[in-house]
Specification:
The complex is a heterodimer of chains A (163) and B (578).
Chain A: E1 2-10, H1 15-25, E2 32-37, E3 43-51, H2 54-66, E4 70-75, E5 81-92, H3 95-107, E6 111-115, E7 119-126, H4 128-137, E8 143-148, E9 152-155
Antiparallel strand pairs in A: 1-3, 1-4, 2-3, 5-7, 5-8, 5-9, 6-7
Chain B: E1 2-4, H1 5-15, E2 20-23, H2 30-37, E3 43-46, H3 50-64, E4 68-72, H4 76-79, H5 82-90, E5 95-101, H6 117-121, E6 127-130, H7 137-149, E7 155-161, H8 162-166, E8 168-170, H9 190-201, E9 206-210, H10 212-216, H11 220-230, E10 234-236, E11 251-254, H12 261-269, E12 272-276, H13 282-285, E13 296-301, E14 315-318, H14 321-334, H15 341-355, H16 371-381, E15 387-390, H17 394-402, E16 411-412, H18 423-433, E17 439-443, H19 445-448, H20 455-460, E18 466-471, H21 476-485, H22 501-507, E19 511-515, H23 518-530, E20 536-541
Parallel strand pairs in B: 2-3, 2-4, 4-5, 5-7, 6-7, 9-10, 9-12, 10-11, 12-13, 13-14, 15-16, 15-17, 17-18, 18-20, 19-20
Antiparallel strand pairs in B: 1-8
Helix pairs in contact in B: 1-2, 1-7, 3-5, 3-18, 9-14, 11-14, 12-15, 16-17, 16-23
Classes of the chains: A alpha+beta (163), B alpha/beta (578).
Bound molecules: thiamine diphosphate.
Thiamine diphosphate (TPP) binds next to α17, α19 and α21 of chain B.
Amino acid sequence: MQHIISILLENEAGALSRVAGLFSARGYNIESLTVAPTEDASLSRMTLVTRGSDTVVEQITKQLNKLVEVVKLVDLTEGQHIERELLLVKVEATADTRAQIRDLAEIFHGRIVDVGETTCTVELTGMGEKLDAFLQTLRSTNIVEVVRSGVSGIARGRKALRT
Amino acid sequence: MELTGAEIVVRCLEDEGTEMIFGYPGGSSLHIYDALYKQEKVRHILVRHEQAATHAADGYARSTGRTGVVLVTSGPGVTNTVTGIATAYMDSIPMVVISGQVPTQLIGDDAFQEVDAVGITRPCVKHNFLVTDVRDLALTIKKAFFIAASGRPGPVLVDVPKDVTAEKCHYVYPDTIKIRSYQPVRRGHPKQVKRAVDLLLQARRPVIYAGGGIILSDASDELTELVERLNYPCTNTLMGLGGFPASKSQYIGMLGMHGTYEANMVMHECDVMLCVGARFDDRITGDIHKFSPYAKIIHVDIDPSSISKNVAAHIPVVGPAKAILGDMIGFIKSSDRKPDTEAIATWWGQIAQWQAVKCLEFDRNSDKIKPQSVIEMLWQKTGGDAYVCSDVGQHQMWTAQYYHFDKPRHWINSGGLGTMGFGLPSAMGVQLAHPDQQVLCITSDASIMMCIQELSTCMQYRLPVKIFSLNNRYMGMVRQWQEFFYDRRYSNSYLDALPDFVKLAESFGHVGLTVDQPADLEGVIQSALAEKERAVFVDIVTDQTENVYPMIAAGCGHHEMQLRPAAQGQVVEGREIA
Ligand SMILES: Cc1ncc(C[n+]2csc(CCOP(=O)(O)OP(=O)(O)O)c2C)c(N)n1
């Protein structure tokens, strides 16, 4: 099963490589990884998507907790949560086909954020499946480039991961 | 007062109470060496190779419980420490390694003697730091000592660029420290401890399986009290030897690949297992699918990630062994339930049958020196009281089997990483920590060559280490596996061109002795042990064909041990008892 692990860690040089090194050394897989500073500049927030049996994921969270720089973590998939991913996709488009792409994007609540002579770029956020579905509908057009941010997530309700 | 970074390093060591450090100088650490020169509180032990510095600090730490400290230079200095750091990491030994680094403005430029020390050591340290500002130096060293020694101990590296050791700042060494992201557990959860005791007291075929955590946590007294109070059988892992005294009647020997038949049978047949400070390593469990099929498992460990990693625990208890065993004894005393003495007596009856196999017997009438007899004699002649450091191979297993440790911190070996070359330098660290005690290094012809240069360090510091080399002209353990599993194709395991060890020892200024007749063994051992001032190298020519028995081969369970050839067919089944 897929798990979304949200981690608060010290915003220090090398913390990211410790997490990445742990996954490669122990043979765990990382499907996506996002990291950015938080409102408290001394902390970073990392969202990590991994896949594995319950025992493997239990080990992953224990091993992560063991890293000295990890302050706290939560497996968001254990409770109700919101997950979002950002997609930027650049497709070939002429003046004739642009309207069609815009209509498609609107159905998915995306929008065109850049237009060139022969291309246009759509921005879309949502769950991974929604982004997949959108990319499916673009199959007939020529996709030039796809950029996905990886998943970010947050628990529903009052629950929060903070120090 | 303002101090330079180099002076701060030395002052931190002083304030940390470090009496000695092990190291080797070089360009990036010269400021620190200069600061060392100008003081007298911290003693520096100059080794002959940085790997030996880490093993010596490691031996010092294992035998005292205090943190071992290493000082090396950048580049090759720090890469040479990697084996020793990994050795300490695998066995959870508290160690602080301070490495010089090229000046901060050169980092990343492939400067002379630059390596990414933090990157190279990351997978084999508990934590590491690069200090880029002299104002962070004292606090970082404080953190390093705190992290190394607390929780599940381990090595911590502090990489200090040369310019940082030259810059000045005001020095304060914090008394205490709190790290929000690192808070080791100090006690077990009382509810879990109580559940564990309830289960333990219901056992009909119990076993207590205790590992290196007992030693690290100084929990031998508590373990001994618990085992004696319950009268349950107790087995120690390779790392736990001495954690429970071998001379007590409840002791059933070491378990695992070369453990005793009785310990492994008990592991297989038990209905309740209390595992304390051990981690179900593959050398302990044998084939994991055949592991202890009837057991309910209580696992006490300070590291949550050790619990249910290889074997699922029914009752996990996270915390230090000492505190938890103490609490368990408390609950047992106040509990209405008592151990089922009748069932336990039946269980001991069964165990006696397994013990009757005498799995550690060996040929005592051979005309060649049997390696087992050497260890047995050393055990007798030292009254079981020596510090025994070992290298890696057959001799290590024989030492574990035939030197019956009664005290913790006396058996010093690389269990987790299995590092050949560990023996001699670790013995130096132990001897420096215990100048008046008998310190043995049990080694063999291949292992000893891996850090042989340290004979020079032994001379410089007049360390009267007693080196007993079980010379079988082979990498014995490799030869044994090739005999068993590769149809006797002894690929690259014969040691051609061995030196004359007696002359070699003498050339370093030590006493060299050799013996090849069983009848002469006792005399040679006695004269070696009688030497109080000088190191002695005893080259013992042993039976080349001897193998370590009993043995659990790959794919086998505890109940499928292979006994020595003369005893095969003696296996006693155990299932009929309930
Ligand atoms: C540094 C290192 N290299 C290789 C090995 C693999 N290895 C394990 S035991 C062994 C043979 C050891 O031979 P020796 O020191 O002569 O001891 P004996 O088995 O003969 O007692 C080897 C090569 C190791 N443990 N460590």
